[in-house]
Write a structure and sequence with these properties.
Radius of gyration: 29 Å
Strand content: 35-45%
Number of helices: 3
Structural class: alpha+beta
Strand order of the largest sheet: 1-10-3-8
Distance between the termini: 16 Å
Order of helices and strands: HEEEEEEEEHEEH
Length: about 200
């Protein structure tokens, strides 16, 4: 009985041997040319919508999964062609500014408000919950700009989705072969002892 328990334990050990998951990076950039003028999308009922699809970079069919993801949005000022800056002025007694805020939503989620867009020559970074990507590799993005004194001349240049993914754990052939050989040796040894008796 004791030998049988040893054989069963070795058998289970063979089939539980798996390789560690490997980590790799993914990235997809959407360049909008000409730039998308966000002033056209001045209400939550009229958002700008687009998608990122990373299914060709992450092998979801094999069980791979996203471990972290980020979205970089690059905005510029349509008037100057420069990155957005805080500016407030007065035009014939009417106050104006170029301060813009953006709502965003992923895959039909609720709208999330941003702080003022002031990029200082850096893309605007959003952390993306991996659950939005691990279903099918597609991230549906909605953007809408708003401004207390009117819609500023904000333009979307590009959108970059990037992060890391892990491969699904798989059995290690070398480990299975080694343990399988040991198991076979135990079985042969036990049989010889049994036949001698």
């Amino acid at each position: 009985m004791k030998k049988l328990m040893i054989l069963v334990s070795a058998f289970l050990l063979v089939f539980s041997a798996v390789a560690g998951a490997a980590t790799y990076s993914f990235e997809q950039t959407r360049d909008f040319n000409p730039n998308i003028w966000m002033g056209e999308f001045s209400g939550i009922n009229n958002p700008f919508e687009y998608t990122h699809d990373i299914s060709s970079e992450v092998n979801f069919g094999a069980g791979d999964y996203v471990t972290n993801a980020y979205l970089d949005l690059d905005f510029t000022d349509m008037d100057t062609g420069l990155e957005i800056r805080d500016t407030v002025g007065n035009f014939f007694g009417v106050p104006y500014n170029n301060e813009e805020w953006v709502h965003y939503a992923f895959d039909g989620s609720a709208w999330i408000d941003t702080q003022e867009i002031d990029t200082d020559n850096e893309p605007w970074l959003i952390a993306v919950a991996v659950g939005f990507l691990n279903d099918d590799g597609i991230l549906n993005v909605k953007l809408e700009v708003y401004n207390a004194l009117g819609t500023g001349n904000l333009a979307l240049d590009s959108s970059r989705l990037y992060g890391t993914a892990e491969t699904a754990p798989v059995p290690e052939p070398a480990t299975i072969l080694l343990l399988g050989t040991g198991l076979l040796g135990l079985a042969v040894g036990s049989r010889k002892k049994f036949l001698k008796k």
